[in-house]
Input
Amino acid sequence: MNLSSLTFLVAGLPVLLLCYYFMPNKGKQAALLTASFIFYGWGSPLRVLYLAACILFDYGIGLLLEHWREKKTLSCAVLAAAAVVHTAAMVWVRNAEATALLYPFGFAIYTLQGLGYLIAVYRGRHPAAVNLLHLALYLSFFPILYMGPMTTYLEFSEQIRRNHSSIVHLSEGLALYIRGLAEKVVLADTFGYVFRELRQTNGMSMLTAWLTTITFSLYLYFEMLGVSEMARGLGKCFGLELPRNFSQPFFRSTVTGFMQSWNITLVLWFQTNFRYFLFGSRHKKWQKYAILILMWILIGAWYGLTLQFLLWGLAVGVLLTLDQLVLEKVFRKNFVAGMLYTGIVMQFVWVLFFGDSLSETGSIWAAMLGFGNGLIDKHGVYFFTSYIALLLIGMYIATDLFRNITERLHSTKWGKILHVFQPVLYGLLMLFCVASMLYGDRVQGFWLRL
Amino acid sequence: MKQNNLHRWTVLVIAVVYLILLGETFHVFSLSDFPMPTFYGLINGTWAEQTETYLTEHIGFHDTLFRVKSQADLLLGEKRIRDVYVTDEMLLEKLTADNTLTPEDLAAPVSDFYEKTQIPTFLILVPSASEIYRTLLPANAVSDEQTSRIQEVYDAAVNGVHCIDACNVLKSQKDNYIYYRTDTHWTSYGAYYVYQSAIQKMGFTAIPYDRYVISHLSTDFRGDLYERTLYENVRSDVLDCYSYEGGAHITEVTAWYPDGSSGSRGNSIYSESALLSEDMYRFYLGAPCEQLVIKTNLDNGKKLLLYQDDFGDCMITFLLQHYSEIHIVNLNMAESGNVQIDPSEYTQALFLCSMENWEKLCDTNP
Output
């Protein structure tokens, strides 16, 4: 099951909400854990056994780290061994044929959350979890395991203990879930469909190549944003405040600005648990940039263990270094030039992300530079004329301009009218999401492999 | 509105939407269509997939919701729904050629058949309406070309296989009602013109068109393209039945099914009950079966072995005027081996299939 399936929307979610809100307070956490296990077991119950084994492993290692807190060498060795086991398990689950039944499974997020928990215990940020239920719920909380947003055990367990859930949480949570669902099934699925169609073009023209990469970047953004927002919404329904994972990254004046608004909690995890944990915060300049590039190569590897993803990470790392060395200063005075530079360079970088091979990447890059099959072709013109309105809407929503206008609208007369009709608008948006889910050509997001 | 009231209203409205949606879903719920869970289905995930598919197809207000979404897409500039181009006159399927298959690959099944059996073999690959009515497609529409692809397959077939050009015949009649507006198939009228061209090459004289009595079975036929798009602005189709009173009559029809069973279908190939179903095109040859043997009162000793897909259904009525027996093998159903065919018993063999389907069949059963 996934958060944007009809099975979850029309059956799973109402049943879960009814059970949760009618359950006495003592049983709410157990209800959420059961729901998480059912969610993962749906389609392949074997996943539940695997998930349970992983949770018990982290629980045990956490207690060991706590027990040997004073014995630094021993606890360091245990942590290193646990990190190796986590990484090896992720690589195995991703690549082994025999683990097909374990998919779709948010193992990439699980690995980071589990490892993050152990590192925090090792560093003494918080004691090891004694309550297995709390840890199990943190590690398996179903809304966040596919695409985040990630949170720390400390924040999560405190909110679980407070157990705040009310009609306000439910209303805001449902509204957020529906907005995320719309981003996923209305926008991401359509951009994904256009991207798939364009990518099949033999001998791309310049127009088709640019459309391909732009639709991919919009697809990826709305796919990840939608799933993250759905997770935040569901979290809110159960009284949990999860952090924002995206913040309108398009049309930023630097690559740094773009990446600071993209998958925020993932980058934060790597900064906390890799960059600062392993290397500290004081370095020579060249060391700082080398660590930054290495961190982004690892982030690339987290997305997928292929040369393409590693090169994507390397490219982002190098661009961020360039930003910090020169470009941030240059573009501070010239926003438009910075926006153009970031927009164009990021489109080239996304080709590395979705390309199957270096030869495909090379041919799309060549086409983008005008060395492909001419400037325009029939395929490109058809999709440009058919989807230009949706592309513009998508790009607009992905920028700060949209956030600004919605914020300004709130204080106007129209904003107040919209505010009154907000419940009806959410009801209609939900029905439109259901309508979009009936098309049947849904895009199987690459994130299912995470 | 006070903030707390707003929250209450939001939850209430969403709950009402749920109640209406689920209420209608239960109203149209049919236990026989719902996938029953099995142990292996639960373990390997197929039951979960089937449940999702069931919900996608049977959720309350399905058609209304689907139309809302497709109209919104069309309004924003999209020109096709589920890979079907929407025009004012007809619905046209987007064609996708399988470039991994060479013309030789596509000609191989017929060439091999001829080389093995050495009986006169004929091949008709029927283009789709999107190929014949290319000018109706929206500007710059993406749809693979079929005429030259069919010619390449014909050129790749071995000498001895007689290839019949349906493309030019149909293009010459494109101003007539030769394809349904809401269905992928050709009309009986379109089938007649290709029959007329083919039967001469097969050594017979075609029955003139004016000898047939045409009855309109339905003027409200909406075909598979309508089912895919639910687009109502294209006129519904007319389903015709051609009968030739002075011609040959069917004496016996026997059908073989994939489970090995067989049964007589009396002395008619037509299925009146199909006219009451959603799939009216089934009228021409009844429920799908693996093989069908039609015997007529002609005693000329001519027997035709016909390998066909659905496009053949409405041509049978014309072909049976020339043969004492037609043995039909349904290309859409994998051979179960329940009925052994000895090609040497037949005078001629005809392969009749739409190009779109032929590529799919060659890809899945090379």
About this structure: Chain A has two domains: 29-163, 169-449. Residues 169-449 of chain A form one domain.
